[in-house]
Specification:
Strand content: 15-25%
Distance between the termini: 47 Å
CATH class of the largest domain: Alpha Beta
Strand order of the largest sheet: 3-2-1-4-5
CATH superfamily of the largest domain: NAD(P)-binding Rossmann-like Domain
Number of helices: 15
Radius of gyration: 20 Å
Number of strands: 13
Structural class: alpha/beta
CATH architecture of the largest domain: 3-Layer(aba) Sandwich
Largest sheet: 5 strands, parallel
Shape: globular
CATH topology of the largest domain: Rossmann fold
Helix content: 40-55%
């Protein structure tokens, strides 16, 4: 059985992406397979998506299947069975919704907020590495799009010489609100920025960060936090309502997935293109993602801006030796709990570090 898009994971982003794929009219028939842990849930998700697509007369069809992340050969077997053109990875060991909104105020949640979300990086990266490794072993490897902290994780996959095309969401969340103010085709919007650059304008303490940097019609916007305050306010307000923001992530994900499968290029924004840290304006089409930077910034400057954003959110982008250092703030917060890990970790130790963090989370969640 062949499919065009294979989605690993069946959480909120998978839901909204399936709905968006059902609503968008593809240029040709499209087959989407969703792999999730809960068979009954995935069956219902794909049944709904099929009904939505059929109601609109679209030629997108959805298939449900399961995945067992602990079975060594299960993922490889599913990839061999479906032979996808694109794999869209959405599953991680740490859901952001366990840390945001009106959830229990546990010691684990307080630690993550004090240290920065980047301390959960190993739990975001471990399943993505598993998928990328399986993809890399295929005779005809599909494109891999990773939505789990792609600002960081994609750089890790690239360092491991594993295939990674790009991510979705993050920078595209902000550009969605920005494009609503400066709509196409009258205007061209270009944004460079790391996930942290959007967190810092969403209620966190501000600093002297230079990002995000924004261009409209080729002209850079000065003092973006004040000049574009309504866009930031819209993002902040919607994000405060929890998973509602993933409706936008689903639309941007569907846009990128469809663009990768068609020959006509689309201008958009993605995090982690080709393993770079942070988010960038890009051109997507015919299986390729290329940077679409404005004249006012070089590639090196854009990467440096995103690397700084990574550190400010709690962890540096992976260096040439394979090491990810935690920021001074993260080190201080982590040291009382796990002093050996507080400084950071080497990519060779990813599995062990991930297990250590899962155990720590269980202990601190139980303490409340």
């Amino acid at each position: 059985m062949l499919c065009d898009i294979l989605i690993t994971g069946s959480g909120s982003v998978s839901e909204t992406t399936c709905r968006s794929l059902a609503l968008l009219r593809p240029n040709e028939s499209l087959n989407v397979t969703v792999l999730g842990r809960n068979a009954a849930w995935v069956q219902d998700l794909t049944a709904l998506a099929n009904a939505m697509s059929a109601e609109l007369g679209h030629r997108t069809r959805f298939t449900a299947d399961t995945i067992d992340w602990d079975a060594p050969d299960d993922l490889a077997g599913k990839l061999d069975r479906y032979q996808p053109r694109v794999v869209f990875h959405t599953a991680s060991l740490q859901s952001p919704w366990e840390l945001l909104g009106e959830v229990a105020d546990t010691e684990w949640k307080r630690l993550v907020w004090a240290a920065g979300n980047a301390i959960t990086l190993p739990m975001q990266a471990i399943l993505a590495k598993q998928v990328a490794t399986a993809v890399n072993e295929m005779d005809r490897a599909p494109l891999l799009v990773n939505v789990c902290f792609p600002d960081w994780v994609n750089a890790i996959l690239h360092h491991l010489q594993l295939p990674i095309c790009c991510g979705t969401g993050n920078v595209a969340m902000f550009t969605g609100f920005l494009k609503a103010r400066f709509p196409a085709p009258e205007h061209a919007v270009q944004v460079v920025g790391h996930l942290y650059h959007y967190f810092k304008i969403m209620g966190r303490a501000h600093s002297s960060l230079e990002g995000p940097r924004v261009w409209v019609d080729g002209e850079e916007i000065a003092d973006v936090e004040h000049t574009l305050a309504p866009c930031f306010q819209g993002l902040r307000s919607v994000n405060s309502r929890g998973k509602l923001i993933n409706e936008l992530v689903g639309v941007t994900s569907a846009e990128i997935l469809l663009a990768l499968l068609q020959p006509h290029p689309v201008r958009s924004h993605v995090p982690g293109p080709n393993g770079l840290p942070g988010g960038y304006p890009v051109v997507v089409g015919d299986g390729r993602v290329t940077l679409d930077l404005p004249a006012g910034i070089t590639r090196d400057e854009a990467v440096a801006l995103n690397q700084q954003g990574a550190l400010d959110m709690g962890a540096a982008a992976i260096d040439a030796t394979g090491y990810t250092a935690f920021s001074p703030t993260a080190q201080e917060a982590l040291a009382p709990y796990t002093p050996d890990l507080a400084a950071g970790f080497h990519i060779d130790d990813l599995e062990a570090v991930c297990k250590e963090l899962v155990v720590l989370r269980s202990r601190l969640t139980a303490k409340g």
